[in-house]
Amino acid sequence: MSARVDTAAVSAHADIMSDAPLLNARSLPRLGSAVRRLRHDRGLTQAELAAAAGVTRQWISGIEQGRIAGAELALVLRTLDALDATLVVRDDAPPADDAP
Prior knowledge:
With about 100 residues, this protein is mainly α. It has helices at about 5-10, 15, 30-40, 45-55, 55-65, 75-80.
């Protein structure tokens, strides 16, 4: 049996995820770029996003600049939620041989 998961079978969001743009966030600077792009796309200021996410404007600025090493995941998730964005974890490992 394959180690891959059929997201359509397990996620209520699979239908909207297939058409949504994916932003690579494999590093803090890339995560920051993704947050900045989403914030701009939604027409929000850093202060507006910070208020919606329950963080400070300085924290948003730091994330967008990729300077918050060790950023608390809960705060990142709240920020993404305020942007109506989803964190997706993709398995980049090569597929395992399915033979016994």
